[in-house]
Amino acid sequence: MPRFLEPAGNQVSAGGPRLTASGIGLGFAMARHTTRWAGCLGLLLLCTGALGSPMPDIFSEGAAQQHGLTRAWFTQMQIDPSRGRVRELMLEGGTLFMLSDQSVLSAIDAETGSTHWSVQVGTRGFPTLTPAANRRLVAAVNGSTLYVLNRQNGKLLWQKRLDGAPGAGPALSQQRVYVPLLDGRLVAYRLKEIRD
User: Fold this and answer.
1) Which of 55, 138, 154, 192 could join 119 via S-S bond, C-beta 3.0 to 4.6 A?
2) What is the pLDDT of residues 29-83, one digit of tens each?
3) Is residue 31, in this structure, part of any structural domain at all?
4) For residue 31, how many C-alpha atoms fall within 13 Å in the half-sphere facing its CB?
5) In a domain? residue 60
6) CA distance 150 to 104
7) Closest Cα to residue 141, out of 88, 77, 190, 75?
8) Is 12's pLDDT higher than 70?
9) DSSP H helical segments within 23-171, as ranges?
10) What is the CATH number of the domain that holds 117?
11) Is residue 172 in some structural domain?
12) What's the structural domain count of the chain?
């Protein structure tokens, strides 16, 4: 699988996760412009197979260096490489949130690659939908349960069994968390009731 690469001189970045014997290696480079981020994340989704079939290796380390590219950083995630895969990536406010297909959610500093926290969300084996984040909280749905975590440390602050099957991952504003249900309803919960 491809690696994250950063051009010398902090130009444009591209890449994806790399499967290693001990886990998934993930490197990431901060781009200066939002449009570059959209392209980088789009390429990442394509490379990880999220938008279709996975692509083969793009560059070896040596080939990348021949083109002036260097890896910005590398980190190990809590994933069993024989069974687990990166399922979702979400960038919000300088933090890269990575969700595995084993329902492990990790928060990574997108500039340095250091892992802030990594937690099991809900029940392993139940589907976990794309998380959402604001400045204070992270929300994710696992199975039919909504989980709200502290963004700084991953501590579980609140959970709520949904009154129906979720249709997609949650959305967060500063005041509410929203979850669409398969029957067409949209449920909203007030965040002021959730305390650290």
Assistant:
1) 154
2) 333 334 444 444 544 544 444 444 444 455 677 888 888 888 788 777 777 777 8
3) no
4) 19
5) no
6) 15
7) 88
8) no
9) 34-47, 61-66
10) 2.40.128.630
11) yes
12) 1
